[in-house]
Amino acid sequence: MDNLSDNLALGHFLKEIEQLIVFTRKRLVKGDAGSRRGKGRGISLDFHGHRGYLPGDDIRRVDWKAYSRTGNLYVREYTEERQLQVNIFLDSSASMDFGSPNKWVLARQVALGLSYITLKQGDKLSFYVLNDPIRVIRKQAGGKESFYHLLRQVRELKPAGPTAFSGITGSKLPGSGMTFVISDLFGEGLPEALDHLCSGGQEVAVLHLLSPQETDPGYEGEWKFIDLETGEARPVRLDQRTRAIYRVKVNEYLQNCAAICRRRGVRYVFGSTGQAPVALVAAATGIRR
């Protein structure tokens, strides 16, 4: 995303996701005034119902038509509206810089798409880089203008080092909200990280990205596989038999990742780097296109 053509592509992508929203199943308990339905009663335009008048109630909320019919004082109640706190954890470990199409390019684009939607709809955004150590890029940012500051920062990021889910476990997020984890999940400690997020009142979505070369390598013959995060090398001979075994193992790995999420009520979305980013953003937000 460093030249004119990349900027035009980004602009087209943002236009494609313009109508999407970050969907959450939970009503919000905490947060500033906004457009999201909270658990309490507030002063939005979303009418909830009536209750009997109590000393100290705002006289402007008395329903005088109801009084003329019943002779009793009632006040109108409206649904409380709050801002949603959205947290994005983007895996920028060395293993993300792999594949054709490249995992890092797609992950970064999806993360920016979710950030754009969040800020456009008037919610708060915190953006974290998930490697060792974990870093905070933006903290409770608001307003569409914050997106362009974030864009410059994300463009400067370079994948390096190991994945560090322990950084999520040690994080303290600001209240309840919606959290997205965008990663290839090549790291230890994912269950503990999800437990930490869920116990803290977060609704969580995991976007699991892999390249086609990782799910079904089309190689034959003698190869040396090198772990991009540890540098460990392993010689492998690939033929039809070993490739079949590999595909079985990958399928077991994906099923295990999905099960870890499902047991915790976490939305799990698997994505190949060959997929369109707008489809992955829609799936991550819980909206089908």
Automatic annotation (TrEMBL):
Tree of life domain: Bacteria
Residues of the DUF58 domain: 51-250
Cross-referenced SUPFAM superfamilies: vWA-like
InterPro entries, A to Z: DUF58, vWFA_dom_sf
Alphabetized Pfam families for the sequence: DUF58
Name of the protein in its database record: DUF58 domain-containing protein
Lineage of origin: Bacteria, Bacillati, Bacillota, Clostridia, Eubacteriales
